[in-house]
Amino acid sequence: MSKEVVDAGLKRCPCGEVPASLEMIDTGQGFKWMNVVGTCCGQWSLEFRADYHPDPDNRMPLAIECWNSADRCCELNDT
């Protein structure tokens, strides 16, 4: 598991909070795919393509893009 503090304008989690950071969790596929979760509740998990980057600094922008582009319920789409 890799945890990085991010200040990248993260969108709200469905729990209603904006996470202070995201955690990237290896899915055992050699960094091809990973999961990303927010540190606010840890309940909402998204899978993103990590493009085989072994360095977390190269994967974090992909995790942030996945987090911010994921569909949320209607109330949270505008935030």
Query: Could you say which structural class the secondary elements and strand pairing correspond to?
Result: alpha+beta
Global geometry: elongated
The total count of strands amounts to: 4
The main sheet orders its strands as 1-2-3-4
The N- to C-terminal Cα distance equals 28 Å
What proportion of the residues is helical, as a percent range?
10-25%
Please, how many helices?
1
Question: What's the quaternary structure here?
Answer: single chain
What's the mean pLDDT score? 86
Instruction: Count the domains.
Output: 1
H/E topology pattern? EEEEH
Q: Which spans of ≥5 residues are poorly predicted at pLDDT below 50?
A: none
Alpha carbon gyration radius: 12 Å
The percent range for strand residues is: 25-35%
- Largest sheet entry: 4 strands, antiparallel
Summarize the structure.
The chain is elongated. The protein has one helix at 56-69; strands at 2-5, 21-26, 33-38, 45-49.
Walkthrough of the structure:
- This protein is an alpha+beta fold.
- The protein has one domain.
- It is 18% helix and 27% strand.
- The chain is built from one helix and four strands.
- It has a four-stranded antiparallel sheet, covered by helices on one side.
- Strand 2 (21-26) and strand 3 (33-38) form a beta hairpin.
- The longest helix is centred in the last third of the chain and has 14 residues, at 56-69.
- The radius of gyration is 12 Å and the shape is elongated.
- The protein starts with a strand and ends in a 10-residue tail after the last helix.
